Amino acid sequence: NAGVTQTPKFQVLKTGQSMTLQCAQDMNHNSMYWYRQDPGMGLRLIYYSASEGTTDKGEVPNGYNVSRLNKREFSLRLESAAPSQTSVYFCASSASPGQGGYNEQFFGPGTRLTVL
Amino acid sequence: RKEVEQDPGPFNVPEGATVAFNCTYSNSASQSFFWYRQDCRKEPKLLMSVYSSGNEDGRFTAQLNRASQYISLLIRDSKLSDSATYLCVVNNQAGTALIFGKGTTLSVSS
Fold first, then answer.
1. Tens digit of pLDDT for each residue in B19-59?
2. Which residues of A touch B46 (CB under 8 A)?
3. Three-class HEC string of A47-99
4. Contact (CB<8Å) A101/B31
5. Does B97 reach chain A within 8 Å, measured CB to CB?
6. Labelling B93: which of A44, B8, B16, B77 has CA 20 to 30 A away?
7. What is the pLDDT of residues B99-108, one digit of tens each?
C-alpha cells in the first residue's frame, strides 16, 4: 500500500498562474483533507471532504478550490496563484469519525510550492 | 484563547533526559486528542492517541486533564532520534475536523 500520495513534490509558479495539486489514497478512507504549513503558523486546514461528493471550507479556504473526484482522489486548485500562497501543502486522509471521536489522519509527503 | 496552544520551545536536552510538553485547548467538548511527530521537512505522523485515563507507549506517556483542558506528553530516556517537532491535536469546535497546534521542537544532543 502506498498510503497517501501527492504530486508534484515541488512546484514554482509565477503570480497569476494556475495549477492543481493531486492527492490519492489507497486506504479506502472516507475523509480527506488539504492543509498548508507555514513557518510559525503550524498546519492550517484549507478544505476537507467528509465523504465522496461533499466538500467543506476549513480555516483558510480563500484562493483555493477543491474537487473530490472519487473516493480515492482529492485535488486542490489554485486559480490565480499569489506569493502569499507560497507554502508546503499536505494532503491527509482518515476513516470517518466514529463514536468517541476521530481516527488517525495519514499524511502525504507534501508539495513545496513557491509563487514568485 | 486559541483553540490549541503549545510552548514552541525549542527544548534542548541531553541524551537520557526526561522532558515534558504541555498543550492547552479551548473547546471543553473536545473528544479526540493526539500527539503527532513531525521530522524536519517531512509529513506529520501519529505518535500516540491520548485517552482519558492516560496511556503509555514505551518511553512515551500521554496524559489528559479535562478539567483544566490540557494534554501532556512525557518522554523518558531521550534518544537522539527523538529530535523532532511534536504537534498537539484536538478536534475543532464544530466537531468537523482536527486542529493542530503549532508544535514544540525538541533537540536531543549527545
1. 999 999 998 888 889 999 999 999 999 999 998 888 999 99
2. 104-105
3. EEECCCCCCEECCCCCCEEEEECCCCEEEEEECCCCHHHCEEEEEEEECCCEC
4. yes
5. yes
6. B8
7. 999 999 999 9
